[in-house]
ABC transporter ATP-binding protein (Microbaculum marinum), 262 residues
Amino acid sequence: MTVRGEGTGPAPVLEVEGLTRDFDALRAVDDVSFAVMPSELLGLIGPNGAGKTTLFNMLAGALPPTAGRIRLQGRDITGLAPNRIATLGIARTYQNLRVFPDMTVFDNVSVGAIGRFGVSLWGTLVPGLERRRSDRIADATIAALERLGLIDHADAPAGNLSYGQKKLLEVARALTLAPTLLLLDEPAAGLNPNETEALSLLVRTLADEGLTILLVEHDMPMVMRVCDRIVVLDSGRKIADGAPRAVRSDPAVRAAYLGDPE
Ligand SMILES: Nc1ncnc2c1ncn2[C@@H]1O[C@H](COP(=O)(O)OP(=O)(O)OP(=O)(O)O)[C@@H](O)[C@H]1O
């Protein structure tokens, strides 16, 4: 029988240590540390200008940190290029939509899967290899479209989708990468209450199925309802880290929002 020693619980998926980013004299992210455990749905909130997007961009490799380390499943990924980080397992959606309106919904989503399965020279030379690759891309794309309820729109131009559906398209595209960690940047922005409800359910279900998710979101009721844990930033610093109920009643958090976050 193996006796598990103290401190031998599951290892974090993501570890952020002393992460800092300066823009000239402005310290946008200031010595932030936290970890995200497997299958955890972690909310990252804070008032406008708190540093959420800057932190996100550092995690995704879009912005090099001034100081600090980022580890994904124990591996140091600090400062790696965005495509390398995506290959290693971090997929993201963007605050502003990145949808190609004239391409079909299927093609928009398959961009993620193409990134995952690569484009290989061998594919053009070895008979059957290119077809197998295309099949895998199609399978991953179809699975993601089904997951997000977009399969009936697969052949339509993405420009025909509603705003809410375009946001779902971005989540589908991220899922085709089969990520270890999904970064969602304000997915509920611009959605109506029904769409937000459906999105909340989806995000919660994905986490319950084992996906680790970091959610930046201004929709406070949504964050409070779906997240396992919440990290709060204010002026670049982490001011709270805990369960939604504790964070909601934290005096420092209330003060940061100049009143009641609700
Ligand atoms: N490229 C940049 N150059 C200079 N300053 C920047 C840059 N990006 C962000 N900042 C500044 O860094 C601070 C943090 O901005 P950031 O966008 O990360 O905040 P945020 O929490 O995501 O805000 P919001 O909720 O409004 O999106 C702000 O003061 C912002 O003006």
